[in-house]
Amino acid sequence: MSRKTIISCAVTGSIHIPSMSDALPVTPEEIARQSVDAARAGAAILHLHARDPRTGRPSPDPEVFAKFLPTITAETDAVINISTGGSADMAVADRLAAAKAHAPELASLNMGSMNFVFAGAADRVQTWKHDWEEPYVRGSSNRIFANTFDQIERTLRELGDGLGVRFEFECYDVGHLYTLAHFLDRGLVRPPLLVQTIFGVLGGIGADLDNFRHMATIADRLFGDAHQLSCFAAGKHQMSFMTAAGLAGGHVRVGLEDSLYLERGRPAASNAEQVDKAVRILRELGREIATPNEARALLALRGRNR
Length: 306
Known about the structure:
Layout: E1 4-5, E2 7-10, H1 28-41, E3 45-48, E4 50-51, E5 58-59, H2 62-65, H3 69-75, E6 79-82, H4 92-102, E7 106-110, E8 114-115, H5 133-138, E9 144-145, H6 149-163, E10 166-171, H7 174-185, E11 193-199, H8 209-223, E12 227-233, H9 238-247, E13 251-254, E14 261-263, E15 266-267, H10 271-284, E16 288-289, H11 292-299
Parallel strand pairs: 1-16, 2-3, 2-13, 3-6, 6-7, 7-10, 10-11, 11-12, 12-13
Antiparallel strand pairs: 4-5, 8-9, 14-15
């Protein structure tokens, strides 16, 4: 249990599409503005994807990242976390491109191949803004999100060994924790580990609070003092799991990548609005909110100036 709670904000992701919410940031200017506002609201870590500014489609292009990263780093001291997940229809080389080009302090790393299905969300869209959106969403039921052991090792070696990047290890099921333990035993990852447990994605472990307790127990058994546990859940489960993680002394993640709502029936107006709510709840639970530099210390990050 950490005395301080790290709040991560996943700003745009690759699951939700522009037709689902006008609040979803798409252009570099929107991503930069919402990231800055989320950091000012209390997010110590910004988990970042990029999108084609014309269509809103997830983009792996390092040059698109380069259009919003300078603004974020100039206006905040937040930890930059670049996704290596990208989207399930990207090649591994594309998924690694932005992190290799920009060498952030932190990068996400998915710990196993899985079905990652969000096709059902298509039934709730009334009007499609772009031609790519409907086949992308409905097609998720026929795609495998590949994260093989060779791909994981490649990521660890090219980003970790090669550039000094550390990782947010994304674990969508119990087996992913054991996969992480395998790479720890081989010496390819080094503590402290940021273990991000994820619930409610169809194809991964379900959004049942008993599953959170089980994942936390197994992570503690496997990693002990060598890890920092974080948690988030997709969609309507976002805030209840955030609260459970806070009660357990863990870290939390919110953001429009994970849920487009602030509460049942009320869409979120921005990422910062979700961060504000997380801060209020955590403080009511007696938790202190970690600053970016406190997060760096807990996670042994190299620091902005390095």
